[in-house]
Structures are given as C-alpha cells and as structure tokens.
Amino acid sequence: MGEHEPDVIAIQETKVVDDLFPRDEFENLGYECAIHGQKSYNGVAILSRRPISNVRYGFGDDLWPNDCRIISADIEGIEVINTYVPNGSSVGSDKFAYKMEWLLRFRRLLDERYKSDQPLIWLGDVNIAPEPRDVYDSAKVLGGVGHHPEEFVRLRKILEFGLTDVFRQVVPEGGHYTFWEFTIPNALKRGVGWRIDHVYATQPLLPLVKHAWIDYDARTLEKPSDHTFMVAEFDL
C-alpha cells in the first residue's frame, strides 16, 4: 500500500469487530476509514484519501441477517460499493442456496438505491470466476462453487443493471488470477488460480479507465492472504 499509494482501498474479510480494526494505522497514512466488522467472520471496509460520506451498511432489510458483507459510501460524487459475496461452501448446501439468494438481493439493492447513468463502482471478493478464462482449468472445476452456471446467471443479472468488468475492458486474455488456494502446492508459481476479485463500473466511468492490473507481488510476501489486490486506475 505504501508503494502504490491508492486513493481508495476496499478490504474484505476483516474478521474483527469495529473497535479492533487498526484504524489509527491507516489514519496515520492519510486514510479515512469506513468499517463494518464482526468477530471472527466476514467484515468489510473502505479506506479513502478523499472524503467519505453517506456510509451505509448491509441491505437495510430486516429480513436479511446483518452478516457484515456490504459497505457503501459516496467518495467525491462516486458511489463505491464494497462486497464480500458469500462463498457458497458446496453446491446443494444451505450456504450455496444462501449465496444464490444473496446475489438476487444484491441486484435489487442496486435497483433500489442507484441509477446506472450515475458514476458507480462495485468491487470486492465476488467469489465467482464467471468465464473459462477466469480459472486455471474450466473443464475441471465447472459446476463447482465459484464456477457454476447458476452463479453465472446471477452475476449476469447484476451486471445487466449497467455494470462493466473494468479489468476485462483492459486485459482480454486469460491466465490472470487473484486467488490461489493454499491447499494446492505452489499454486501461484504453477498458475493454478481463479479471478474472483472484481472491479465493475457504470458507463460514465468507463472512458476514464486508464489501467487495470493484478498485484502479484503482494501474494509473494511473507504470510500473504490467499487473495491479492485487483487494481483499477481512473483518470478523475
């Protein structure tokens, strides 16, 4: 983070209550912090060098559990939504059914709160590799969690709101991943990965995209996450 100095950082799976989030460390680096955390599970945060306003948490729906997977904010006229989409565990499980319903509810959230002709960025751990080029061996894993036709349908419905995959606007070829399982030996070196961390934007922002890339170096650090950073640059 110190090397690239991003204006906005979206974090998923913080796994701490808000009082234990290292707010002071980020504020000392010049970031405002909007956080939505819980003990041991989930948790999302938005960090910004620019002023944050209108912070909202979750679906705002009493029928849905507040499992700390959504945080949104207005950053100088751009709506930013950071999500940690449920993994789904295994196809046919209650957790997979919850993921399917969660994705449908997220599409309704877009319709309720936003307009596609306004600047909007949706980003985070989406837990879906939507195309064969987004996973190391599509034929092998197709039909499993993260690369399942039902997930593809749900994601398409969300994107029909008016969202475009920023990375794919810049980098069309496959072989670019953001997640490598620790349980697979040398997964990073062998290219055994998935692109499940995404940045999407509405039409007003697309002409402003300068670059999009994946920070592979962060995955090689000592004690890394099994994910790495997906980065998008806009000429704002």
The second-level CATH architecture of the domain at 85-234 is: 4-Layer Sandwich
Q: Give the mean pLDDT.
A: 96
Unreliable stretches: none
Strand order of the largest sheet: 4-5-6-7-9-8
Briefly summarize what is shown.
The chain is of the alpha+beta class and 236 residues long. The chain has helices at residues 23-28, 94-113, 138-141, 149-159, 166-170, 187-190, and strands at 8-12, 32-36, 44-48, 52-57, 70-75, 78-84, 120-125, 163-165, 197-202, 209-215, 229-234. Helix 2 (94-113) runs parallel beside helix 4.
Explain what you see:
The protein is α+β, with helices and mostly antiparallel strands and 236 residues long. The protein has a domain at 85-234: Deoxyribonuclease I, Chain A (4-Layer Sandwich). The chain has six helices and eleven strands. It has a six-stranded mixed beta sheet. A three-stranded antiparallel beta sheet has the order 1-3-2. A two-stranded antiparallel ribbon has the order 10-11. Helix 2 packs parallel to helix 4. It is globular, with a radius of gyration of 17 Å.
What are the key terms here?
236 residues, alpha+beta, 3-stranded antiparallel β-sheet
SSE topology sketch:
Blueprint: E1 8-12, H1 23-28, E2 32-36, E3 44-48, E4 52-57, E5 70-75, E6 78-84, H2 94-113, E7 120-125, H3 138-141, H4 149-159, E8 163-165, H5 166-170, H6 187-190, E9 197-202, E10 209-215, E11 229-234
Parallel strand pairs: 6-7
Antiparallel strand pairs: 1-3, 2-3, 4-5, 5-6, 7-9, 8-9, 10-11
